[in-house]
Amino acid sequence: MSARFDNREVAVALVAGLVFGAGLVISSMTDPRVVIGFLDLTGDWNPALGFVLMGATGTHLLSRPLLKRFAPRAVAAGTPTKRPIDRPLLVGAALFGAGWGMAGYCPGPAFTAVLPALGTTLAFTAALVGGMAGYQMLHGEPSLHEPRDETC
Amino acid sequence: MIDLSVALTALGGGALIGMSANLMLGLSGRVAGISGIAGRILEPGRRDRAWRIAFVLGLALAGLALAPALPESFAETPRPIWLVIPAGLLVGYGTRLGNGCTSGHGVCGMARFSGRSYAAVGVFLGTAVVAATLTSMLVGGAA
Questions:
Q1: Which residue of A83, B27, B54, B140 has the smallest Cβ count within 10 Å?
Q2: Do A106 and A100 form a contact (C-beta atoms < 8 A)?
Q3: Could you tell me if A45 lies within 8 Å of chain B, comparing CB atoms?
Q4: Which residues, in sequence order, are CB contacts of B87 under 8 Å at separation 6+?
Q5: Per-residue pLDDT of chain A (152 residues; tens, 9 = 90+)
Q6: DSSP symbols for chain B
């Protein structure tokens, strides 16, 4: 892989991170009260999180045919190999959901809200990185998944 | 009653997130899944840390840049700190074990009709609703 390609990849990731973070701030996902307002069935229900997920998934879903047409190799590279639904997937999702509901943060908003540094946000993000490091220590092998297989 | 301006702002913010996923997939052939992008920075022997760090930095800089203009978008969690720390550990460990979070499984995985992602979203949304509701009832800190 040439250095030039690496630079391009870094630039794309920086811009994509900025756009992603802007979307989270504009839609108030960086306010855990809004997130809890969606998840908590007892309080004043706030539908915002549902609309954010619809807007994001809908935009990406509708764009995929175009992406496939104009960047077929990139889309193929970024499509994880099919794997069965297994225990780690379900257990991991359950643990994640429990933490998400307890504090009102998932990883994106935690990283986006960390610099305006409000005490508990900083504490959550530090613990989040700690949990990721813990996973690394317990299940260390780097090639558990294919190199490009980011998620899913 | 659903406030129309809240709904439109949320849809618009969501559309930006979808555009970010488009950029990553179309230009780099990557899934815009934040837990995978960030978590793999910690993987030993990884040679592609630069773009991962750039993505996380982009998130953080977007927050820093927009905080003065949209201060009402930022707030502390109403939950006590003794719950916030274990919650962070669960989110960090769980998203790595389950191979994705709201972005990777929720946005990218559902958009390409991945069965694993639909299963993951069903489980983490379900447990999050139970956890958020129980926490509000037992500990307090409802929104």
A1: B140
A2: yes
A3: no
A4: A98, A99, A100, A102, A103, A105, A124, A127, B79
A5: 445 558 999 999 999 999 999 999 999 999 999 999 999 999 889 999 999 999 999 999 999 999 999 999 999 999 998 899 999 999 999 999 999 999 999 999 999 999 987 789 999 999 999 999 999 999 876 544 544 544 54
A6: ---HHHHHHHHHHHHHHHHHHHHIIIII-----HHHHHHGGGSTT-S-HHHHHHHHHHHHHHHHHHTTT-GGG----SS-HHHHHHHHHHHHHHHHHTT--IIIIIIIIHHTT-HHHHHHHHHHHHHHHHHHHHHHHHT----
- Domain assignment of residue A121, given as a range: 3-138
Residue the block writes with tokens 């930006």? B16
Kindly identify which residue of chain B lies nearest to residue A139, measuring between CA atoms: B97
pLDDT, chain B, mean: 95
Number of domains in chain A: 1
The closest CB to that of A151, out of B26, B62, B105, belongs to B105
Of residues A8, A94, A112, nearest to B60 (C-beta): A112
Answer whether B110 sits within 8 Å of A57, measured CB to CB.
Answer: yes
A143: in domain: no
CA distances from B33 to A3, A31, A84, B1, B104 (A): 24, 20, 19, 32, 4
What pLDDT, in 10s, does the model give residues B19-76? 999 999 999 999 999 999 999 999 988 889 999 999 999 999 999 999 999 999 999 9
Q: Least CB-CB distance to B25: which of A15, A49, A75?
A: A75
Q: Tokens 């892989």: give the residue.
A: A1
Phi, psi of B141 (to 5 degrees): 85, 35
Complex ipTM = 0.97
Pairs across A and B, CB distance < 8 A: 555
